[in-house]
Amino acid sequence: MTAPWDDWNHVLKLDPDKELPDGVTYGDLCATGTDAIEIGGTTGMTEENMSAVIRACAEHDVPLYQEPSNPSVVVEEEALDGYLVPTVFNAGSPFWITGAHKEWIRLEGDLEWDRTWTEAYIVMNPAADVAELTEADCDLSADDVAAYATVAERMFGQEIVYLEYSGTYGDEEVVAAAGDAVSDSALFYGGGIHDYDSAHRMAAHADVIVVGNLAHDRGVEAVRETVEAANEA
Ligand code: 1GP
After folding, report:
1. What is the pLDDT at residue 180?
2. What are the structural domain ranges in the chain?
3. SS3 helix, strand, coil % of the chain, rounded to 5?
4. 163 carries a ligand binding annotation
5. Cα 229 to the chain's mean position, in Å?
6. Which of helix, strand or coil describes residue 39?
7. CA-based nearest residue to 100, from 74, 126, 129
8. How far is the centre of ligand 1, averaged over its atoms, from the C-alpha of 212 (Å)?
9. Above 90 in pLDDT, residue 90?
10. Which residue, of 43, 131, 180, 195, has the greatest Cβ tally within 10 A?
11. Pfam families under this entry (predicted)?
C-alpha cells in the first residue's frame, strides 16, 4: 500500500491565524519545492481563515492537506487532497487522543476515509500552545519517546508518528531514538527548523521534516533552503 507521504521529505505548515511577511504570497510559498502543504494551527482557527488559506494555495500545484485541531474547524474544500488528523499520544486528557475524534464522527457520520489519515503526535515542547491545550506530559526521555513511537506503530497501527517540538528546535538524540524505533511508520519531525543546517540535521533522522514558523517569520528564501536540505539529507 502506498501512502501520499511516501515520497515526501518536506512539508510546509501554514497557520491561518498568522500573517505572512510583507510581500510574500501563498503562491510564493507553494513554489518553494515543498512536497505538501499542511494547513492548521492550535489557536485562532476558524472555518473562514482555514478556507481562505486553502483557496489561496489551491491555485498552485502542490498537495494540500488540512490538519484540523478540533472538529469545528474542519472544512470541506474540493481543493484539499485530504485530512491529516492529529491524535496526541502523550496528552493529559483523552479528549485529545480519541474524544475530539469521537465527537467529529458523532456529528458528521462517516468521513471521507479514503483521504483521511491520523498523525500520532508526541508533543515535546511544554511551552507550545499544543502542549498547554492538550496538557501533554512533555517530560519524556529518549527511551520514553521511542516507546511511544513503538506503541503508535505496533499497537495502534499509526502510519505517521509526528514528533512535535513546535516553536523550539528539538533534541537530536530524541529524534534519532524515535527514528530508530519505527520501521513501517513514517517519522515526521516539526519544530524550530530555521535554516539549511537545522533542516539537514533533523532530516537525517526523520522521514519528513515539517517547517512552520519560518514561513511566517522569514518568508520564501528561508523556506526554500530547508527544502533543499531535506532533499539532500
Ligand atoms: C508546528 O511542527 C510544526 O506544528 C513546525 O514547527 O513552527 O517551530 O517550525 P515550527
Report:
1. 98
2. 4-232
3. 40, 20, 40
4. yes
5. 18
6. strand
7. 74
8. 4
9. yes
10. 131
11. PcrB
Judge contact between 171 and 190, C-beta under 8 A: no
Domain 4-232 has CATH 2.60.40.10: no
pLDDT(47) > 90: no
Burial profile 121-144: b = 16 or more Cβ within 10 angstroms, e = fewer: bbbbbeebebbebbebebebebee
13 assigned ligand-binding residue: yes
**Is 93 annotated as contributing to ligand binding?**
no
Helix (H, G, I), strand (E, B) or coil at 4: helix
What pLDDT digit, counting tens, does each position of 166-223 carry?
999 999 999 999 999 999 999 999 999 999 999 999 999 999 999 999 999 999 999 9
Pick from 129, 166, 227 the residue to mutate for probing ligand 1's pocket: most ligand atoms within 8 Å of its CB: 166
Dihedral of CA atoms 99, 120, 139, 124 in degrees, nearest 10, equals -110
CA distances (Å), origin 227, targets 82, 86, 125, 128: 22, 23, 23, 24
pLDDT confidence band for 130 (50 / 70 / 90): very high
Does 125 contact ligand 1 (Cβ within 6 A)? no
How many angstroms does the Cα of residue 128 sit away from the middle of ligand 1? 10
Q: pLDDT digit string (tens) for 167-179? A: 999 999 999 999 9
Can you tell me whether residue 64 is helix, strand or coil? Answer: strand
**Nearest atom in ligand 1 to 193's CA:** 9
Do 206 and 189 contact (CB within 8 A), yes or no? Answer: yes
Residue type, position 98, single letter? T
* C-alpha span between 195 and 192 (Å, rounded): 9
pLDDT at 33 > cutoff 90: yes
